[in-house]
């Protein structure tokens, strides 16, 4: 049907609806039939028609032309039809006027309704936009618009997950190609769309799942580079849309890094790895914690305060008094700007009448440590030091130590 989606025209404008059969082979052995357009169960007189196409046209529309228009093939054995709803707006009715936004033509729409349009060029899916009751356009919702290359990559990984790991070499090649593709796609644009961020989260999760089940090697540097690109604060608006429109948020990426870390450090043959990105730093290594402690980030890190030999935000696990048999693998991460994109919601109850006047926010970088095995009670304990991002009103703030609870997707004071 053309138009493809429900549409609106103003009273007095032309109204044209076209129906076309795109798979003529489906009519093989179907005799004495024809395309028909109906409205409210009544046949419409076509303006132009052929065996595979029918067009209905009215030069001057009226409000009574509003309704559902349906196209069908009269003698097709299994009833198949397609419909579109047309709304003719009277002169006195409020409406949102036609405009182009996000490379999408949003045609005139009746107030209080939602408009659907195909996504911008090179993206697949359906974009929606609300015309509010005052006749003012709300921002477009592009959460279901995804770059075609992301969809293709996701589909390839789905095939591997559904069919099982039958060819480990081919699986490793697919993962490697997917990661390099994603690295190119996420680094070549100043701001990722909400749909592409949502798709990136899904693809990275699938890569971790495939790696976990197949034991395939993974280009860790490229994986971390993709995560770094997606975590950019340039994408903060898109991250807000992802959090509002889906069940995902930035913690989904943190979880994937944690899960990949667990896979990597289960192997006793750990190779030391360092990644320094614009948005997070990571170290994979092993140490005998009864001989050498862990300090992260290290002195050479970009996390140091200018003109100082100390670090703004770091953790330190001192040399342990309890003896260990062998070196322990670990992954340490510092997320530099996660505060810009991670929700500030916490498990802390609103216990005062003035709670509505309070604003909870993440006021530091975020530290993470994953160990190869449970190392039990620490002596000396793990020491964490955080530098506040905002310091102007520090005296008016209540500072809390929190950790991210992946089960509730909230900050929790438990364990602090």
TrEMBL record:
One of the record's GO molecular function terms:
G protein-coupled receptor activity
Pfam families (alphabetical): GAIN (PF16489), HRM (PF02793)
Q: Which key words tag this protein in UniProt?
A: Disulfide bond, Glycoprotein, Membrane, Transmembrane, Transmembrane helix
According to the entry, every stretch annotated as the G-protein coupled receptors family 2 profile domain falls at 70-149
- Domain GAIN-B intervals: 271-416
Offer a single GO CC term for the protein. membrane
Q: Name one GO biological process term.
A: adenylate cyclase-activating G protein-coupled receptor signaling pathway
Work out whether the entry's keyword set contains DNA-binding.
no
Q: Which residues form the Ig-like domain?
A: 1-83
Where found?
Membrane
Using the UniProt record, give the first listed, main subcellular location: membrane
Q: Which PANTHER family match?
A: IG-LIKE DOMAIN-CONTAINING PROTEIN
Q: What is this protein called?
A: Cadherin EGF LAG seven-pass G-type receptor 2-like
- Source organism: Crassostrea virginica (Eastern oyster)
The beginning of the lineage is:
Eukaryota, Metazoa, Spiralia, Lophotrochozoa, Mollusca
